[in-house]
What does this fold into?
Amino acid sequence: MTRWRWLALLALVLFVVLVAVAPSGVPDKKIFGYSPEYPAQFLAGLSGELGRLKASVAIDMVFPLVLTIVLVMPVTGAARLPAIGYMVADYIENIALYRFYFLGAEAPETLSLVSQIKWALVALACVVLVREFVRTRRLP
It folds into this structure.
């Protein structure tokens, strides 16, 4: 099995664990965004799931890097930009949510927009990956 396939498998496992561990309603899973008040409402309604939230945040600090490597490896040049953009957007969102959850900082009103941009870049990176596969008929 090639390195790319091992990393893709790791990304899949991390994603499944992240979905299983994260409390329901975590803001950064909302593909189409959320209201500026939503993170505060989510945190207020958490009641007793703080351990799950901490585990979710810990995994979410590793997942973007692994997924970005998986999306970047098969393609070259400018086609790598959507995946790298995803990683930057996801880390911006993760750090802002971490500061909100655990340090008492306010969630920026633009956080939902960052989330939407992140998911759009994932979709674009997947399209590029599929196009590369169709063009070459192989993955690394």
Observations:
- The helical segments are 3-21, 38-44, 50-60, 63-72, 81-103, 111-136.
- Residues 3-136 form one domain.
- Residues 31 and 116 are 6 Å apart (CA to CA).
- The chain has one domain: 3-136.
